Amino acid sequence: MNINESIKKGLEDCYSFRWDDAQKNFRSIIRYFPNNPEGYHYLASTYLWFYLSNLNQKDYKNFLAYSDTALEKAKAKINVDSNDTNILYILGADYSYRAIAFEKAGKFIDAAWASKKSEYYLKKCLLKDSTFYDAYLGLGIYNFAIGQISPAYRWALSLIGIKGNKALGIKYIKLAAKKGKLSKIEAEYYLSGILSNYFNDYTGAAKYLRNLVNIYPSNLLFNYSYSTLKIKQHQLNIAKKILKGILKNKNLKFTQIISYSNFLMGDIYFKENEFDSAKVYYKNFLNTSLSKDYTGIAYYRLGLSYEIKGQRDSALKYYNLATHVKSNTEDDIFAKRKGEYLQKHVLNQIEIALIENNNLIENGKYKIAYDSLQLILPKINDVQLRAKANLRLSNAAYWLGNYEKSYTSAILAKELNNSEDNW
Question: Using CA atoms, how far apart are residues 285 and 340, in angstroms rounded to an integer?
Fold first, then answer.
């Protein structure tokens, strides 16, 4: 058995969501090479995939068990040959996976130390061979993640030797995406997320994700990420088609991706002003999610969907639920604040019209929104609502390429000093 070819085959099975085949492959490596860490490391990675989606403690324990064995085997080998770059890479990659698992489990101190150990071994690997391009991925993620932390927290981490450089992190991830052998696909996926979520470079992100989805059409994670990108690009019909495919999947190992897909479908119908359909998918999400993240914003938009359809009593129920969600996501924090406000304030017709026009923009119907807002603005007397309307008009004008109108409307919105939209 060629161990490198078997690893590549197993990874291809992972990316194609052929999990039974992947695990069978990695177990074969363990059987043929029981003293090597690779089989244990990659088998552990399959359980990490499962755990990140379903939060099942059995998968978490299996991940740690195989990861522990991988580290044990790797350290035994590195004690014999400290220059073995492949073993140094496995040590660094394994600690990188442990950091992800610990962070997801809420064990933040363990996650920090695992990250530091990952950096140590990957740096050591690259010092011995700077062309070991797979090692740049973990080091890149480490640097980018630390570089994204606020300066105050970054300073505190630096006291215990944890330092990172965001620009260097991106450079390393790009290097792994371009020249990596085993980490290339993973690097491309991480890079797409960074480009989309941190730099709003949707075109650059789409280049990577479109390629990944074409090569691995059965990969739920790649498809889910591609659908979120299409929503950001206001291409809702494409996103809807992708999500419908995910929702047909019954893979019990990836229930959270399926649950989040219900949330996104709710968002799509909300942005299409199809509020009754949005309700169905938001409820599906709330009934199936294993995480509290985004439940607050789902409750809030569910409340809006009821209120816009004239069902104030039902809306109040969901506004109230939005205020009790314990989540630190920005969306949920926003939903809590808005839920508290809307329990005491009934939406008027202008406010509903502004929501619907904002949805038109999110749905790519910029001209319809632009014309509608031009008609609504003269009818608005409330200063705050005029600010909101101008902000939305600015957005519609921007997407239509009317940058002068976009600029003047944005300046007017700012002058009206709308604290809600400045949040």
Answer: 22
Residue 128 pLDDT > 90: yes
Question: Which residue matches tokens 């649950």?
Answer: 259
The CATH T-level fold of domain 134-218 is: 1.25.40
> What are the structural domain ranges in the chain?
1-132, 134-218, 242-342, 360-422
Distance CA 1, CA 35 (A): 15
Rounded (5°) CA angle 326-423-384: 125
Q: Specify the 3-state DSSP secondary structure of 297.
A: helix
Closest among 63, 105, 54 to 254, alpha carbons compared: 54
pLDDT of residue 144: 83
Q: Report percent pLDDT > 70 for the chain.
A: 94
Task: Output the six-digit token pair for 256.
Answer: 């959270």
Maximal C-alpha separation, the chain: 80
CB-based burial label for 27 (10 Å; 0-12, 13-18, 19+): middle
242-342 classified as CATH 1.25.40.10: yes
With contact defined as beta carbons under 8 Å apart, do 20 and 49 qualify? no
Which residues, including other chains, have CB under 8 Å from residue 159's CB and lie 6 or more apart?
none
**Contact by Cβ (8 Å): 119, 168:** no
What span, in angstroms and rounded, lies between the C-alpha atoms of 224 and 246? 8
CB atoms within 10 A of CB 277: 16
The CATH architecture one would assign to domain 360-422 is: Alpha Horseshoe (1.25)
Report how far residue 35's alpha carbon sits from residue 159's, in angstroms, rounded to the nearest whole number.
Answer: 37
Q: Are 224 and 249 in contact (CB under 8 A)?
A: no
The distance from CA 340 to its chain's CA centroid, rounded to whole angstroms, is 27
pLDDT score for 155: 47
Amino acid identity, position 136: Y
Of residues 255 and 150, the one with the higher pLDDT is 255
Structure tokens at 68: 């522990």
Instruction: Please state whether the predicted TM-score (pTM) of the whole model is above 0.90.
Output: yes
- Please report, for residues 55, 63, 222, 224, 283, the alpha-carbon distance to residue 52 in angstroms, rounded to integers and kept in the order given: 6, 11, 14, 14, 22
pLDDT in tens, 255-309: 999 999 999 999 999 999 999 999 999 999 999 999 999 999 999 999 999 999 9
